[in-house]
Amino acid sequence: MTKQMIRVGHSPDPDDAFMFYALAHDKIDTGNLVFRHELQDIETLNRRALSGELEVSAVSIHAYAFLLDKYALLPSGCSMGDKYGPMIVARKPMTVGDLKSIRLAIPGTMTTAFLTLRLLLGGALTPDASPGGRGVEFAYDVVPFDEIIPAVAAGKYDAGLIIHEGQLTFQNQGLHLVIDLGVWWQERTGLPLPLGGNVVRRDLGAETIRNVSRLIKESIRYSLDHRQDALSYALNYARDMERDLADRFVGMYVNEWTLDYGPRGRAAVARLLEEAHRAGVIPEPVKVEFVE
């Protein structure tokens, strides 16, 4: 029997590796589907999704707003910041008000981290319909996410917007927390901050989409049920992290939220994209649709 190839894009990070452990190591029966994993940073995956390259991909919730014609949002695989999230860190103590007078290093204009930063600092000033377009009132440069902390520590930037495991390790470089955007969002809305999710290409058809959705949820469940084995695999992608710290990081972003957004998680996605549209960050209203 010829199996259908499903290319899955996800980040080379311990949380994504943990999530896809079972699929990457044939721990579950995938039937007539075969999965090939393509590991790239989230901003690259966001850009690839704009052209519908991969059958399944991790994307930022910000990017999802520009993908509705090609992709549907899977109910499993979300990264949810529940009273934590992307952070602004700086070489010296500063306030949020100082951010508009400096140049920041950011991990990508389509990341949810950048969207949330724009909401924090007042959204867009000028109409800009391009995905992640510049229409903002602060200066920034796009820097690979794993180079931001070293760049700030070296004085190339006064502050940086950090994602992934840097949220747990930035103090090691003597940097100072300016603001945790996940905390800011929760205090403002009472909701967690939905950072990323998995999407599936609509042209696969209803039956294949249902099977993909089921298998990804099974993969996440398998890792949660076989935590130590999955964590050992995830450590291959844990930059400068010991096992205990990697386990803590994985627990932040692979948990019950990841199995299913649930009503509160779905409300959080809708609220974030609604506020982004109202602020002019996203040009059109977004009708959030999950695979059922």
Description:
The protein has helices spanning 14-19, 21-24, 42-50, 61-64, 112-120, 148-153, 166-169, 181-189, 206-225, 227-234, 243-253, 256-259, 262-278, and strands at 4-10, 33-39, 56-60, 71-73, 79-81, 87-90, 103-106, 139-142, 159-162, 176-180, 193-201. By secondary structure, it is α/β, with parallel strands linked by helices. The chain has 13 helices and eleven strands. Mean pLDDT is 91; it is low at 124-134. Helix 5 (112-120) links the parallel strand 7 (103-106) and strand 8 (139-142). Helix 9 packs across helix 10. Helix content is 38%, strand content 19%.
Top keywords for this entry?
2 domains, globular, alpha/beta, D-Maltodextrin-Binding Protein, domain 2, about 290 residues
Per DSSP, the total helix count is 13
% residues in beta strands: 15-25%
- Write the CATH fold name of the largest domain: D-Maltodextrin-Binding Protein, domain 2
Classify the secondary structure makeup into a structural class.
alpha/beta
Average pLDDT level: 91
The end-to-end distance, rounded to whole angstroms, is 28 Å
- Low-confidence runs: 124-134
The gross shape turns out to be globular
What secondary-structure arrangement, pairings included, does this model have?
Layout: E1 4-10, H1 14-19, H2 21-24, E2 33-39, H3 42-50, E3 56-60, H4 61-64, E4 71-73, E5 79-81, E6 87-90, E7 103-106, H5 112-120, E8 139-142, H6 148-153, E9 159-162, H7 166-169, E10 176-180, H8 181-189, E11 193-201, H9 206-225, H10 227-234, H11 243-253, H12 256-259, H13 262-278
Parallel strand pairs: 1-2, 1-3, 7-8, 7-9
Antiparallel strand pairs: 3-11, 4-11, 5-11, 6-9, 6-10
